[in-house]
Amino acid sequence: MNEPKEALSAQALALIAEEEALLGRVHSALQATAARQQALRGQPRSALLERLTELRDEATSAVESDLPALFQQIDNTRAVLERDASAKLPEPSTPYFAHLRLKRHEGTSQEYLLGRTTFTDAQAGVRIIDWRYAPIARVFYGYAEGDDYEEWFGDRLSEGVVEARRLLVIERGVLTRIRAGSLHLERTAQGDWREVSATSVLSGGAGTAVRAGSLGVGTGEEGRAARFDVTAQLDAEQFEALQTAANEPLLVLGSAGSGKTTVALHRLSKITFELRAASLPSKMKVIVPEEGLARLSKRLLAPLELRNVSVETLDTWAYATACTAFGMKTIPLSSDKPALAARLKRHPALKPVLERQLGKRKTKDPSFKILRKRLAEVLTDRTALAEVIAASQGDLPTPAIDDTVRHTMLQLATPLAKELEGYHPEALATIDGLSVEDSTPDALAGTVDAEDLPLLLYLKLKYSELGTDPLAHAVLDEAEDFSLFELSVVAQQLGKTRSCTLAGDEMQQTTTSFAGWPAALAELGVKDAATVRLSVSYRCPRPVIELARHVLGPLAPESPPKNARDGVPVGFHHFPEEAQAWLFVRDSLKDLLEREPKASVAVIASSPEAARAFHKVVDDMSGVRLVLEGDFSFEPGVDVTDVESIKGLEFDYVILPDATARSWPQTDEARRKLHVAITRASHQLWVISSGVRSRLLPAPQS
Ligand SMILES: Nc1ncnc2c1ncn2[C@@H]1O[C@H](COP(=O)(O)OP(=O)(O)OP(=O)(O)O)[C@@H](O)[C@H]1O
């Protein structure tokens, strides 16, 4: 629980009074403007000008007592003339998220509120500026309260002191939180204000030291306070990254939870605003590797007023692009494929082999059928595949050759349905009602894998164009998981536009596709992209970051992220048997859900099979969901999921239920995946093991 302090200081009381009065002024000004817009909507500009002249004439001959009312009418009419009567006003429920007061050296003070819609009412002393383009926003993001600032706005130098810099939460029109430097105030459910201590805010609400042995730091209690808008919290490094020109490519790097997605999506918002084309969102695309992150990105885009931007997973994007490029309504996809073949098809080592094998073949605009046949020739050529394995330098094992050849041969077979054409349906009826080829190797006949689509598109590009609509900007999040083939197709969609944002972290690659940033940028045609490296870790507390670095071992970057906040120690729990371990987790989850019904918890297993097995232990508990296809609801409760589904996501609590040597062996791939799972925790992490503990974890302390 956040313990209220006894009584508020005079400084805190003055601050609350000032901010509440300011919000009151903003609401009145917005209400008055909305009423004026309503009253004058539909009136032609000429009528307004005429009315203004009349009022001025009246004022010259009016008696003194009538003057205030006349001046008021003049002001109103002028305000409407200056402001388009249909111009969008800030949303009164959340009109702004920050307050800045600057005292210039020459002595004048000026107040600015930061929001998403510009609004000025000079008479009421209200000025809301748009964080995306107002030059003064640079002062807000670049300086702290009390700092001297010095900024050039055009050719004018502005100097002074940042007198006030406050983050605010306004919920349904009510001010509920204020943060001014180290002073943090919160409105209680009863409507009073209390001061919250900095440590309790950082640790998620509990404010008391929590033993590693108990799960729960109070983060998901009833009545958890709304968060400050992340737009208000962007740090100077992140804000600077957003200043990259709209038509330039940008690579955003940084450790897990450093704000790469945040920067990429805010850049999208800024570019949309700068280009100011109403139809633009349809030409913007966010592409991410997995469904879970696609869903999260959509949620994050909503408050940035980018609901219409298309967010696609690599698979859905490749499928839609292939359908358009090959003029097909549907493409039959296999429902089952060997993991090793899928890895081979994404590996950069395949590219030179594919190019060499197919480079000699000249055909003008080959069809899907022809390209598929040519690709299959390579994928069934054992000598060519052996070259790919050798060039992968240990990333791909030799059995990948057999798996790929066998699988491709099955896909090349004529579908049984086609062979059986002409037979009477009754002769083909099966006992279980399924089609004759279902669940047999024949089910693969005539299909392609999702991984084949980028390869086929890449091959098509060798001979012709894609024929898809050009993109104005593309965000590629978790870009370390994009294959060179996918990047080359995105490059074609961007065309001459080089406007794109790649966000990534080489430590988080969970597939075999990463070829290194220089190769990725070259494939995308943006070798010279500006690169920013975000250095502050926001999501994870220090104990979690330390464990994540330990797990990476020799792969860990030299310097740890900066400014990690303190947090609860990681809980390590070892049991002789899995059954005991899981019963212990079940009881802990039950207890946690009772105490903190608003908490978000992820149980992240090493594989979908392990997630399914664990789920059986808790499937009778309400608020527990098995999520294996990325269909996260982001509701409070427990998501039982696997490591392949959670890239880019975050949860209050994370439990790793199978931290065994078998699930997490000493390989680079396991190190990176375990690191991804660990860094999803924003408050507390539990690592559960049974039998032989994973050697990637620190030795238990005796
Ligand atoms: N400047 C900031 N101040 C406070 N919180 C921030 C800031 N920047 C980002 N965050 C928060 O940190 C968390 C992680 O941000 P984000 O998901 O953008 O990181 P990421 O680098 O993309 O993570 P990952 O590598 O796991 O994909 C989010 O909750 C986000 O709102």
From TrEMBL:
GO biological-process terms attached to the record: recombinational repair
- Show where the UvrD-like helicase ATP-binding domain sits: 233-541
State the Gene Ontology terms under molecular function.
3'-5' DNA helicase activity; ATP binding; DNA binding; hydrolase activity
Quote the record's binding site residues for ATP: 254-261
Cited Pfam families: UvrD_C_2
Record's keyword annotation contains Zinc-finger: no
Keyword set for this entry? ATP-binding, Helicase, Hydrolase, Nucleotide-binding
The keyword Hydrolase belongs to this UniProt entry's keyword annotation: yes
The name this protein goes by in its record: DNA 3'-5' helicase II
